[in-house]
Amino acid sequence: MSKELTYWLALAHVPKVKTKKKNEIIVQLFEQGKSVINFFESEYSVWEDRYQLNKSEVELFIDAKKELSNYAFMVEDLLEQGYNILPITSQDYSPTLKKNLGRTYAPPVIYTKGNLQIMKEKSVAIVGSRKANDNSLEFTDNVAKNASKDYKVVVSGFAKGVDKQALDSALKYKGQSIIVLPQGIATFQSGFKKYYKQIIDGDVLVLSTFYPKAPWSVQLAMARNPIIYGLASEIYVAESSEKGGTWSGVMDGLRKGRMIYVRKPNPREKNANNILISKGGKAVDIAGNLTTYEIQDEIKSIVSEPDLNNTEEKIIEFLKTGVFPAKKIVDTLKIDWSSRKVSDFLKNRKDILTVKGKPLRFAHKDRSIQKQKTLFD
Amino acid sequence: MNRQEAEIRLKNTFGFDHFYDEQWETIDLLFQGKRVLLIEKTGFGKSLCFQFPATQFQGLTVIFSPLIALMRDQVKGLNEKGIKAKCINSEQTSEENSQTIQDALNGKLKILYIAPERQENQEWIEATRRMNLSMIVIDEAHTISVWGHDFRPAFRRIINLVKLLPENLPVLATTATATKRVQEDIERQISGNIQTIRGELIRENFQLYVIKVQSEDEKLLWLAENLPELEGNGLIYTGTRVNTEIYSRWFEYLGIGTTEYNAGLDSDSRKEIENGLMNNEWKAVVSTNALGMGIDKSDIRFIIHTQIPASPIHYYQEIGRAGRDGKPTKLILFYNSTKDENGIEEDFKLPKAFIDGGRPSIKNYNKVINVLKQEQLGERQIMKATNLKQTQVRVIKADLIEQGIVKEVIYGRSKKYEYQFNAPELNTKAFDELREQKLTELSSMIEYVNTGNSRMKFLCDYLGDKSHNHYQNCDNTTLEPFTLNSQQTTIQKLQDFRESYFPELIVESKYSNIVNGVASSYYGVSSVGAALHRSKYENGGDFPDFLLKLTLKAFRKKYGQEKFDFIFYVPPTESGDLVKNFAEKLSQVLKIPISHKLIKTGETQPQKVFKNGYLKKENVAQKFSYSEPNELVGKSVILFDDIFDSGATIKEIGNVLTKFGVTKIAPLVIARTVGGDI
User: Could you report the per-residue pLDDT of B150-163, keeping only the tens digit for each?
Assistant: First the structure.
């Protein structure tokens, strides 16, 4: 495997090529049982024909190929210093991240240090402002405490305020934590010193998706937010203003159909939490529990009788038989819903998985999980 | 490029008409982007196999070499041919190294020589992200194998690198000495369809001799009478640093022009000696085996070993440096076969001790593991936390890294060692296997000493060269053996030398008025150590008078009739008044007043408790003062102590006295230990 890593880095860090394009190459290789080395060693015409690279992309990959020996030096250095390099095809790559971000956004390579098993556990992201108020910090502490009690991993972004509280609380309650870096993994000197004991005891995993030597920057801090969301099975928002990283991260998450819990603020608090709730976030109280209104809503859906005449139930039952796009569902069930309506309905269902790609496809969680035949489904 | 075209270019650039077949075979494979292991004897022309292709490739060729001297020579040679080559190593300033890296980045170089340790350097690693690389070469490739005779942990990283390099990037590994086992190990490590080319190892101009002696003195005597008679210039390898000093003083005493060389010298002195060797300034350079590897001197006419090397491979490698011009060359090996009370031959003991002491105890491994489980530490911090010697810490570190238990992590300019999550248990089986292997190799070396057949055939067989040559040229075949038959006058000279030879104490520094001092003897090499031990630790009473005589003699030899104002002595930690009483006797005889005012201001532990220099230095720092400093201004004093080890105490007192205005501090001790750490 290690020889492939050189090629993986070259692929992952080709500039100006979208993640989706890179993942499509990877999916093809995966399905053909080929390695990333085969891709780089192919004729350029194969890049164009089979992998659908356009002329400028071919140029970019030619440049990347020239840098392979440079990447070899970098991989050697990273491995030597105890960093893990995990391509998306690796068994150790976070399944949660892959599932949540899909082929459009899942980074082809992630860099980590620490206990890889942490990525396989259920996880809770707690996000919020760097200048959070006391309510938010208390909320964060509560959520981290509950998570740790339930053996869930706390994912946070290593910024001040909520992020810091989330990490400290998780460790205080003897839980495990993932630190998602807003920088390359090889530039986290002070953090590795500070969390040395937790890392070697297996309680902390440090993770970065960026070029290993990249220093902190605003852009990377913003780009990191979707990774935090992607790594989490549940997302809790302690505090958000109407702009900035937390806001755009939550909006992005809602757009992608993620279930996001937002702390219901006190009337006097000045933040945008209520707006997020109005946009689809689920309101929770300071202890992290669903507020009464939300609970009734949930119960209602749980207690309602299955009724196959009901269009919604028909769709759900149908999805237990396979993975389908909305159009296929409409056509097969001959229902009078638009494809758009089906999509919107399914995206908000907790029991339905959304499979990224064009068109979007949907699957029921109860569907027996078969042996992985494709990388993302 | 076909051979004909290549040879035209060869002529233009290097001035040679053609390649040897095996050279061309290698070069041709490299042109095809293949990986090659080339095993050829010294003098075959291995360098050309990478130098020539390097000049033809578009980008840079990087050569990892553990031999700084060789780098320097080859770079010089290449530059003279107009080929742009430079090297990066620890003997150059960091500015020079940085400039070289810049040149490599800017495409101004074709060939870059670099020490494998540099793979740990961040400036270099940063630069490798942007270099246009065409080929990687691993010189002295036997050093990548633990089964080789000179394993270097730094090469582990180079091997990891090679495994990651893209296919089609040519890789060449070269060595002059590899047994079949080492060859297979290198092939396995470099992997990726490596092709091996192996040549013959016979050196027809070599004249091999073994001289069995019954004492250390017999070696000195034989050399006194025969060294001047040997043709040309050469090297004398002694087993230890101390012996480079003793042999060198002996030749000096006899008026034979030699100089000493060991890894303890600073790099300027080493360069100077290497240059002097090239220019035949001395009959011989007396050295540990640190010298000579890779030195491009074709007419080394003899190499004499006063101790046996660790194996026949070591021996072949070390003598391989001689006689590269093909002219007759003498290779002489001494072996003291006197048996001690346990029936063990004297000269078996030193290499055996290296094997026994080569690996620290498991307890010490666990000490290091345990401190690293608590926090990330640098090397010096590990030494402080564990009270282990630097040499031991280094061995342990390398093994722990090798086994994936610990990683060396670089943060900015500092190197830290980190225990790894889920690290495996320490595997001690690997250590035992290596030890067994080394003992087997050592007994093969003894076989070489005792063999009655052709010595060159013995070496070639051992190294896996099975070709059928006509082997001769040794004291078992066609040559007359050397005999021992010393004249009485030489024996007398040796006795005189023994009585007038006193080890120096190197303590001078820029900020202190202390001068280099003198000891009356080495601690372990004579009866002096035993006498000191009896007095200090077995209630043997005052130091005996013969030590006083010897110490006075050392004093006169070093300081002559120089006047001193006081004798000071180091205030004791635990052995009562022994040092004070002895100093009083010295004072009486030398008629220099003794002062008792040098005092301790704080508790110290006996220095021997501490195993490394950092802790010794810390133990005595700020612990001394003088009760009437006013009387010290402008004075010249003798500073006496019984044993000199790391020198930390003497140096510390030197600093204190310098501050009080003493203009000269002259150290005098009874014995100096051998192999003081750091």
Answer: 677 788 888 889 99
A196 contacts chain B (CB < 8 A): yes
Taking CB atoms and an 8 Å cutoff, what residues of chain B touch A199?
421
Task: Give the per-residue pLDDT at A371.
Answer: 46
Tell me the whole-structure pTM to 2 decimals: 0.78
Rg (CA), chain B: 28
pLDDT bin (cut points 50, 70, 90) of residue A295 is: low
pLDDT over 60 at B287, yes or no: yes
The proportion of chain B whose per-residue pLDDT surpasses 70, expressed as a percent, equals 98
Are A52 and A149 contained in the same domain? no
Contact A114/B409, CB-based, under 8 Å? no
Identify whether A100 is part of a domain: no
Average pLDDT taken over every residue of chain A: 89
Distance from the first to the final alpha carbon of chain A: 24
Residue of B367, B289, B273 whose CA lies nearest to B612: B367
The answer to whether residue B570 scores a pLDDT higher than 70 is yes
Distance from CA of A37 to the nearest CA of B (A): 9
Of B119, B128, B375, the CB nearest to A70: B128
* Strand (E) or helix (H) holding B484: none
> Per-residue pLDDT tens for A14-48?
999 999 999 999 999 999 999 999 999 999 999 99
Question: A69 vs B160: CB contact, 8 Å cut-off?
Answer: no
For chain A, the domain total comes to 3
Q: B421, A2: Cβ pair inside 8 Å?
A: no
Closest alpha carbon to B49 in B73, B66, B25: B25
B614's tokens: 């950092």
The CATH number of whichever domain residue B126 belongs to comes to: 3.40.50.300
**CATH code of the domain containing A334:** 1.10.10.10
- B554: buried, middle or exposed (CB in 10 Å: 19+, 13-18, 0-12)? buried
* A189 closest CB neighbour out of B130, B192, B411: B411
Find the mean pLDDT for residues A361-377. 67
Is the predicted pLDDT of residue B524 greater than 90, yes or no?
Answer: no
Q: Report which of B258, B216, B252, B218 is spatially closest to residue B234, judged by C-alpha positions.
A: B258
Here the CATH number for the domain that contains residue B417 is: 1.10.10.10
- If DSSP codes are grouped into helix, strand and coil, which group holds residue B354? helix
For residue B408, the distance in angstroms to the closest alpha carbon of chain A comes to 6
Query: Does B38 score more than 60 pLDDT?
Result: yes
Residue B414 Cα, gap to closest chain A Cα (Å): 11
Domain that holds residue B328: 206-338+445-495
Give the closest residue to B13 by CA, choosing from B48, B58, B38. B48
Could you tell me the CATH number of the domain that includes residue A133? 3.40.50.450
- Residue A298: its pLDDT value, please? 52
pLDDT given at position A300 = 47
Average pLDDT, chain B: 90
C-beta atoms surrounding B126 within 10 Å: 15
B253 shares its domain with B299? yes
A75 vs B contacts (CB less than 8 Å): 164
Question: What confidence category does residue B460 fall into, taking pLDDT thresholds of 50, 70 and 90?
Answer: very high
The three-state secondary structure class of B463 is coil
What value does the mean pLDDT take over residues B97-105?
A: 94
Six token digits for residue B521: 């003897």
Distance (Å) from the alpha carbon of B237 to chain A's nearest alpha carbon: 37
Indicate whether B509 and B628 sit together in one domain.
yes
Q: Is the pLDDT of residue A305 over 70?
A: no
Model confidence band, residue B526 (pLDDT cutoffs 50, 70, 90): low
- Establish how many alpha carbons lie within 13 A of residue A107's alpha carbon, considering only the half-sphere containing its beta carbon: 24
The enclosing H or E element of B666 equals strand B664-672
User: Could you give the angle at which helices B527-537 and B545-559 cross, rounded to 10 degrees?
Assistant: 120
Nearest CA in chain A to B154: A80
How many Å apart are CA B478 and CA A95, to the nearest integer? 75
